[in-house]
């Protein structure tokens, strides 16, 4: 059973930002029309994080298939993640920190990662609540944490802050 552990974002911020900028440059060389966002907890000051870097690559629907092909040349497809006509997840376990890339069609159902970041940046109460959830799952099952995280984000999607985005 995989266990989950968290540390303060400040431990990872500098390296995560450096890796984000390096990866953003690589992706833009292949997909100049992409909107590339640093998402996830390493993008949220004062938050707890597992220490991995999450990047959202947002593209128009008409280039999604090409984007999948081009990103597949850079990263491994995350086989454990959902795959649709508007979403693909990739990973790179060789970067520091470990990297997850979420490719989404702009305006699609899963074009939400940047919105979560914006809501957590704008509302410290939500960020603190998310950190409390993480503390409750420290050293516990990754699967159980992911289920709780999914419930938290489903609730966050119902907030006025999220709805405005």
Automatic annotation (TrEMBL):
InterPro entries xref list: GrpB/CoaE, NT_sf
Superkingdom per UniProt: Bacteria
Protein name per its UniProtKB record: GrpB-like predicted nucleotidyltransferase (UPF0157 family)
UniProt organism field: Parageobacillus toebii NBRC 107807
Lineage summary: Bacteria, Bacillati, Bacillota, Bacilli, Bacillales
